[in-house]
Amino acid sequence: MYDADVTKRRVTERTILEEARIAGGLNQTELAELAGTSQPTISAYERGTKSPRLNVAVRLLQACGWNLALQPRVSFTEHPAPDGFKFPFTVPDRLWRLEAPACFTTIKFFDLLDEENHQHWWDLSIRADRRLVYSRLLTYGDEAHLMLYLDGALLADLWDELDVPEPMHNLWEPLIEANRRAPAQPEKDYYLRDQETRRSSVQVIKHANAG
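The structure corresponding to this sequence follows.
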């Protein structure tokens, strides 16, 4: 499987703060003003030469328009290639979600299952394209490509339509069924969480200045 974008990714990963600041459309000076600190301090946090306390990190992220949240860590197991297959395959221990537009992006890879298929670009916003790509990812995808392109909810929605060989199907199916049977969170919990985390720009600035 080949993806042109993967080879172009920057070697040094951004810090969470830098990712949040860029996503919020702020430069370092603007973030410093909102959070009641200095631009050199923001720069030091982003370069990793200085670490903010947890309450400071929360305040900075909120000033960028983001909340600090827990996200389950996904572990992967690589299984050897079954008889008749060319490559090993990878299965996670849980499913995850991708933010839009990442889950609906257009990607490039070669179809390793059907060598006669000369289509290289696939639009994940189109259900038929997503169905084929997900089938190929579950069959031959490695950890990086699975995390980059696979969305758990969209996978569960497509599961009954996917053409996945039996060895891979048998290992992925428990994950799908576990997510389909998972109890829904009570509506009141969503409401309370929304009330607790909703912040207007005025509240963010007041909170930052108070700190």
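The radius of gyration is 21 Å.
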